[in-house]
Write a structure and sequence with these properties.
single chain; 362 residues; mainly alpha; 63% helix; 4% strand
């Protein structure tokens, strides 16, 4: 089936969806006998619940997964068993903290008011077209970077600059995708020869390592100079929290290497998921004017009467909780175009080390 995959790789999501529809939700993708590329692909809710929930411990990611996603090191996406549980516990503890919630709301609000709106006003005034996918990726990249590291890379601006950190992350993601659609021997040969996608991956990893370790060193210097001020600060990014004493409760010591892997995992998770969801949502709204009308009507209901004439009005999170129709529209966009359409799990048994079970959520 490999030739068919290579022919359809430019529209992989639609192609897999079509195959799943024809096969009642589950099919076996068979690669060349020498390539270790057999996949059991399923979108059946019962199967996904079995793999991802009720029997999750029987499906560790395994060696092959970690090799393909080697740029993420020992981060939460690559880890299994006790290391995964400890990282998950630490992430839940820090992200559920009230100070982080406050920081999140403040960061998004500032980025919308001082970043997103000025750009939209500028392109509207100039009568220019704007690629919303690129715009939302810049918005979520800056927001995620601030929330994770405390530093703003300045990706979202009228000049639309190329930011090395963002470009390296994109290159790494493309190389990871390439590793999924060619035999392992092919991409490992490319890595050994230093050519093709593997050459791009090597350069991306070097850039990511340099920038992330700079962030870590800078943060460590800040904390050593004014740790009391940081403890009392309202703005608490995840890197600051991971470098504090709080994470010792989960039995993990976040040395620089694990901090680097954790930062990249959060950056990968935060940027593309949110930007993809926003892009598809606005595309769907543009195709359904009646939905746009209902959303606007619902928004107008919670704008104060004396502010109706204002050019812009930013809603706070409490106000948005009242918007039932908007919430439903967002959920429908996520159902139709899930930001993470594939989730790959490996089997527990060593009898089939080459078999993976990608779960398709579309």
């Amino acid at each position: 089936m490999l030739p068919e995959l290579l022919l359809k790789v430019h529209r992989i999501h639609d192609w897999v969806t079509e195959l799943l529809q024809r096969s009642q939700g589950t099919f076996l993708f068979q690669g060349p006998w020498f390539a270790s590329m057999d996949f059991l692909v399923t979108a059946d809710p019962a199967n996904i619940h079995y793999i991802m929930s009720s029997n999750f411990s029987n499906f560790p990611k395994g060696r092959e997964f970690k090799e393909i996603f080697d740029v993420l090191g020992d981060g939460i996406f690559n880890s299994d068993s006790d290391l995964w549980r400890s990282q998950r516990k630490a992430a839940q503890m820090l992200m559920n903290h009230q100070k982080f919630h406050q920081f999140l709301v403040k960061t998004i609000s500032v980025k919308v008011g001082k970043g997103l709106i000025p750009i939209l006003e500028h392109v509207a005034k100039e009568g220019k077209a704007v690629d919303l996918q690129d715009l939302f990726q810049r918005f979520t990249f800056d927001s995620t970077c601030i929330l994770v590291t405390g530093y703003d890379p300045g990706c979202l601006s009228i000049e639309f600059p190329e930011v090395p950190f963002s470009k390296a992350l994109e290159d790494a993601e493309e190389s990871i995708f390439y590793r999924h659609v060619v035999p392992e021997r092919v991409w490992k040969l490319q890595r050994w020869l230093g050519i093709g996608e593997e050459k791009k991956m090597k350069k991306a990893k070097e850039t990511l390592d340099r920038i992330v370790f700079e962030y870590i060193q800078k943060k460590r210097e800040e904390l050593s100079k004014g740790i009391q001020e940081k403890e009392e600060a309202e703005d608490v990014d995840l890197l600051t929290s991971y470098m504090s004493e709080d994470c010792k409760a989960v039995g993990l010591k976040f040395v620089d290497k694990l901090l680097r892997d954790t930062i990249l995992s959060f950056m990968l998770a935060g940027r593309d998921t949110t930007s993809s969801a926003l892009t598809w949502f606005f595309w769907l709204v543009s195709k359904n004017p009646q939905v746009e009308t209902k959303i606007l009507e619902e928004l107008e209901m919670i704008i104060p009467a004396d502010k109706m004439a204002a050019k812009w009005w930013k809603f706070d999170s409490k106000e948005l909780n009242k918007l039932v129709y908007l919430h439903g529209a967002l959920c429908e966009a996520l159902r139709l175009y899930p930001p993470v359409p594939f989730s790959t799990q490996g089997p527990n048994s060593t009898r089939h080390p080459s078999k993976w079970a990608p779960c398709c959520s579309k």
